[in-house]
Amino acid sequence: MDTKILQEQVALHRDEDAYKRLFLHFYKGLTRFADTYVRQHEVAEEIVSDVMLKVWTLQEALLDVRNLRVYLFQAVRNAAINYLLKSRNYTTWDIDQVAPESFVSPGTPEQETIHRELKRRLGEAVNQLPPKCRMVFKLVREDGFTYNEVASILEISENTVDRHLNIAMHRLAAVLQSYRKSRP
Q: At CB < 8 A and 24+ separation, what contacts does 144-150 make?
């Protein structure tokens, strides 16, 4: 899907179908991202809906947005932080569990058991990462953002993104290495 064309159709022609396609294209990822901040799925959905409504109300100013994907993630991040500040719900600052799904391809019962154990260990390792480190890992590895885009979304430098990702990868590599050693 070419989001740039849809963006132009929404901005210039007020095309409701194009808006709906943009909304559906970004909704799931943005909701998951908002949920990492607010930890309440309904609130995350509301935040994303509000941000997407703002896209509609921008009208021709929407053409000034160079990278809509990054713009939307930044807007959701800011809206989630504003929600937390207003609700003073600081205890909800936690990141989703992230565990790569594709390290093992289960087939036999033994392989399925191995897959579940490895997934559990990797999930625990990711969960033990510092919050910003987990967020960077999730944005780069799961959502496919570039370092530059993550730096822009989280308002940190690209070097900091690289450091966070290196920390995450070293810890996950250590888990994989200890897992290999523990297997007969």
A: 145/69, 145/70, 145/73, 149/67, 149/69, 149/70, 149/73
